[in-house]
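Section 5.1 Outputs to date
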Amino acid sequence: MTANEFLEYIHYFSSQKYDDYYTDDIILQLPTKDLVGKQAVKDFYANMNQYIQETIRVRKVLSEGDTLIAHVVSDFYCIRDWEEFIVKPMKKGEMHRHELLVLYKIRDGKFCSIRAGRLKPFNH
């Protein structure tokens, strides 16, 4: 997958039209939760999208063979109070930002594994 193809995926992800990019047996490892299978990933994001609007900004993409690494910033805008959000409880109107490194494994042109890790902010 090229950097441009990845940016297209991010566009579709932000538009909530992303499941064509996942294998049926995808494993998604978030910093606080693991999801197994395309349906589990779809259900998780369908629920999240009722409360949170996520915007992803890509800082860097490196791709080689079946592996892609992305440095991204995710902004979570709360559109409805959500005490159970896996990042932190949020109230409508709040915004929370995370900087992440995400490791993608690719099989047959689709993501079969996604592992996301938060980066700590620099202490200047």
